[in-house]
Protein 1
Amino acid sequence: MKRFLTWRDDWYLGIDEIDQQHLHLVELINQVADSVMTQNSESSNDGGAMRLVLQLQEETRQHFRDEEAFMRNHEYPQVSSHHREHALLQAELSDLIREIEEGKRRLDIETLTSLKYWLIDHVIESDMDIARYMNSR
Ligand SMILES: [Fe+2]
């Protein structure tokens, strides 16, 4: 079965600790997708899928913490702007979760697609700057 979000090799930063966490977040989004696709259409807020979204929120929080610690340890100059971006991403995810909980949004393919781009556009692509910085040293 084709995965909802397929990892691409050019997303590797070459920083093992961060890469492993990114792979794990991609896997979690795939688990959310699997859960959403297999749930029956009447139950809009399937507990299993929602539990995985909350897990994604928790693990993202930890990932951002670890990534910021890594950046500080390596004296990455843009750590404060990257931190602001992380805060914004967490706020976006919290908003999305609140909308689902309040019944304003369904955990459906459209929401899954938002989650997918939330992860790859920001979380992975902007982290490429960290890789570039590490390579330039
Ligand atoms: Fe990251």
Protein 2
Amino acid sequence: MSSSTLPDPASASIAIVGAGFSGTLLALHLLQRSPPQTRVILIERNAQFGRGAAYSTGNSSHLLNVPAGKMSAFHSRPLDFLHWLQSLSEADLCGIVPGPGTFVPRRMFGRYIRHLVNLEMKVPEHGDQLELVRGDVTDIEPNGGGLTLTLDRNRTITADRAVLATGNFPPAAPPVEDPAFYDSPAYKPDPWGPDTLADLDPDMPVLLIGTGLTTIDTIVSLLDQGHRGPITALSRRGLMPHRHAAGGAGSAPETDSFPTRLNVLTRALRSSSLRQATIGGSWHAVIDELRPITTELWQAMCTADRQRFLRHLRPWWDTHRHRVSGPVADRIEAARASGQLRVRAGRIRSYRQDGPDAEVEVVFRPRFADELDSVTVGRVINCAGPDADYSRIRDPLVRRLLGKGLARPDALCLGLDVTTNCALLGADGSISRRLFAVGPVTKGTFWEMTAVPDIRQQAEFLAGQLAALVRPGPVLA
Ligand SMILES: Cc1cc2nc3c(=O)[nH]c(=O)nc-3n(C[C@H](O)[C@H](O)[C@H](O)COP(=O)(O)OP(=O)(O)OC[C@H]3O[C@@H](n4cnc5c(N)ncnc54)[C@H](O)[C@@H]3O)c2cc1C
């Protein structure tokens, strides 16, 4: 038998692009699973590692929408986050009494992830294995046996494998005939941008595009900064996220099997919710019962049903599945009751603005109406949720990977096409042994890959896969 060349563990290195929750957690799991000589290089373009868009908010009114008891970074230690919270001093907790059902500020979760990185770096053997690099990855190129990552300032890093943990991209602008308004300073394309709410006259009318969780965050920020002017939130269906059930969702009776035809499943969920209501329960338990098998359902469903789901049911799923905490829901309801916040359903048709500093009239067609309507505002903020259609995302790294055929968008435009092992599929359908993805980038294959409980399992799984790839196998003689 001939001898075969095996990866040299002394030189094995894995680069992770993006140090939000997904990339950072993957790095932590890799340190625990891969051979000690493996280098784990975590690259982040922003100053903060471990936070990403979700957990870098400085606003303490931006609460987690999942209770502390379900936000552990580790599936096998479900109360890790809660225990960390409980270990904090009273001064750090600022009046929060942490319990499993408490919704704490999101920035505390970012602090927890950073604490986990610091802990790992103190482990003598892991401290040397993990390299944190501040930089913007603009290209990845196969180099004959590995990969070369190009970073800003003409830097390069070589690695055996790379994982895209690039998270969410800013929302796409609604298509209109004349998009000139999108160049106006009155239009804010990125809800997380530093200038989005800056220099805003507190009495100025504002339009928020979208009615989901990002819109809720923006309303909370506006109220916190003392905004008095009218706020209009507009989306195609005008649905806002529901609130979590007071005192927890409870549990639904165990189900023997779940149908995978969309219409049958929808009917089953409806009747299950009605049954729950008759025994004093709520639909929350029915939705929560689906959580552990959502990915299985998605993968078992035919493509036509997945398309039907995205076209017709997605907004209902999103608003029932991704809910808001009671305190946040109370503020939103109060703003609606006072008339300051108006939620409208419709599609934007055009913008009319006389000069870049003038107010803009946003013309839209209300849902189920023939007549156009309009709202005149001083600022339009796009809160429509992340753009996941990689065929139009302008990010240089994405463009180059697609241009070289190293990656392709998934068929439903939810992210990049990956296998169930998180390996990227190239333009020709080939499965990469060097390029992988984790987190929301993989939604096309996994659907629910948004919240911490889903991402933590995926990160752990992928770390196991990658560790097996870099671990030396038995030498064939
Ligand atoms: C506002 C908000 C609130 C949320 N709240 C909750 C919650 O309460 N509970 C819950 O379970 N889930 C919540 N989620 C969902 C979930 O936790 C996040 O989507 C998750 O954090 C995604 O992490 P990520 O690392 O994949 O992406 P991101 O957080 O977007 O991080 C990606 C990182 O990659 C970096 N990056 C991108 N491209 C490059 C590049 N080319 N080079 C270098 N760096 C790059 C970015 O700078 C960024 O830091 C929330 C999400 C959002 C957006």
Protein 3
Amino acid sequence: MAKQTIGILGAGKLGLALANIGAQSGYEVLIASRKPAEQLALPVSILAPGAKPLSAEEMIAETDIIVLAIPLSKYQELPPIALKGKIIIDAMNYWWEVDGKDKVFSTIDATSSERVQAYFSDSQVVKAFNHMGYHDIQAVSSYSIDTERKAIAVAGDQPEAVEKVARIIEDFGFTPLVIGPLANGIMLEPGSPLFGANETASKLQQLMDDFADSDKGHDFFAQRVNQ
Ligand SMILES: NC(=O)c1ccc[n+]([C@@H]2O[C@H](COP(=O)([O-])OP(=O)(O)OC[C@H]3O[C@@H](n4cnc5c(N)ncnc54)[C@H](OP(=O)(O)O)[C@@H]3O)[C@@H](O)[C@H]2O)c1
């Protein structure tokens, strides 16, 4: 059977961790950043053996499912037309403690992924791989067969695209936890107890339910969650 191809834009901590487990899971992984492919060859060969470094343009042209593993402040450097018709897995976070405050992303009239979807209006944006740290993602490759799978939450507005991404999450060694529409992705962002979670699906669901029930959740997040 032909290998399924997945593209990863961003060859930093998260991008390389995903490329590594993707390649180990039998996917054809194409990875790119702003650097020329030749400069990525060495780090990719060490940290994500089996993944193929390409230029961003080549990678985008060669796959229909692309993970954005770049800083949130950079997605508008990509021309939406280049990603038309593709599924975008939005792994980006508005993480002000690391990236600095941003007026647009500080307002909660739309979540970061809803803004990404509005920008890439002819693509299908699915939010996933946001809440778990790259080192925990990477650790899946050392799980034994008896290790209980950890969950990755996934949110999106197009059920078929969510289903495809859930399948990838499963193939990568995690349990997908579908949490509803893209707007529910607010539950995965910094400030939520789910951010940083490396938990089983039932525990992750419990964290979500508890937070939605809490005063803090009510005040900030729960109002954005479409139950
Ligand atoms: N680190 C984590 O544990 C983690 C977990 C979940 C989600 N995330 C999210 O994932 C994203 C990446 O985080 P990270 O920690 O992996 O960051 P990082 O280590 O700083 O890597 C960022 C990567 O993005 C690339 N990049 C930046 N602008 C680009 C552009 N316009 N086009 C193509 N590539 C571009 C950089 O490439 P150059 O070197 O060529 O500039 C670099 O390879 C962030 O949004 C973060 O919130 C991170």
